[in-house]
């Protein structure tokens, strides 16, 4: 389910990043090339981006397919940004949350997306959810697995964990509580990207110049694209990508 994308680098129009490439996120909404689960990502979409001088990102989210939104076409043509996180959604289960369930989720300077699914939802995460303060549960944007996973990540970020460590800890907790879950996460603060590959595809592209793209699948056939191994943490900025293997949680 889902395809997502993150970029940090020199300012680019949203359309150049998300629409123009031959296998862009826009096209992946109906014709993904490497999607292992689901076929069409038409259950909502969202884009978050950062403007110069403002650390808090803007978001544009809708409940319908990205190809049907003419307002997004205008937005993508004129808005430029140095950092972007976007996603197209294939819902795991039917629900009434609409655009509230569409990534990116946000808080302060953070943008977050989850590509995958939690097995046994919602019962499998009852203990993890119960450990959160009631105010955090009431603040959930939607009643879906991705919204709860984001709240678990945010709780760790708020306690001072690094982006990469927060993602790893939540992957380990969720994988232990719900074995077989697919937990590909993307997280950015506008300067760097942290991501996990856990059960689905993750690719990255660096250069030329000061730019890095991390995505569910390549948006073109540039031979410099590299696949992250499964069970890995990726941390990147404009020029460097660091990959760290992840272990399965204890049985």
Task: Describe the secondary-structure layout.
Blueprint lengths: L2 E11 H5 L6 H4 L16 E5 L8 E5 L7 H9 L1 E9 L16 E3 L2 E8 L8 H5 L3 H5 L6 H14 L4 H15 L4 E7 L4 E5 L5 E4 L4 E5 L10 E2 L4 E5 L4 E5 L6
Please, what is the CATH homologous superfamily? Answer: Aminohydrolase, N-terminal nucleophile (Ntn) domain
Helices, by number, come to 7
If you consult CATH, what is the topology?
Answer: Glutamine Phosphoribosylpyrophosphate, subunit 1, domain 1
- Structurally, the number of domains stands at 1
Structural class: alpha+beta
As a percent range, the share of helical residues equals 10-25%
Tell me what the CATH architecture is.
4-Layer Sandwich
Query: Count of DSSP E strands?
Result: 13
- Lateral arrangement of strands in the main beta sheet: 3-2-4-1-10-9-11
The CATH class assignment is Alpha Beta
Between the first and last Cα atoms, what is the distance in angstroms? Answer: 26 Å
Shape, principal axes of CA atoms: globular
What integer is the average pLDDT?
95
User: Which regions have little confidence, pLDDT < 50, spanning 5+ residues?
Assistant: none
Could you walk me through the main structural features you see in this protein, from its secondary elements to its overall organization?
The protein has one domain (3-245): 4-Layer Sandwich (Glutamine Phosphoribosylpyrophosphate, subunit 1, domain 1). Helix content is 23%, strand content 29%. 45% of the residues are buried. The longest helix has 15 residues, at 163-177. Helix 6 (145-158) crosses helix 7 (163-177). The protein has helices at 14-18, 25-28, 70-78, 126-130, 134-138, 145-158, 163-177; strands at residues 3-13, 45-49, 58-62, 80-88, 105-107, 110-117, 182-188, 193-197, 203-206, 211-215, 226-227, 232-236, 241-245. The radius of gyration is 17 Å and the shape is globular. It contains seven helices and 13 strands. The mean pLDDT is 95. By secondary structure, it is α+β, with helices and mostly antiparallel strands.
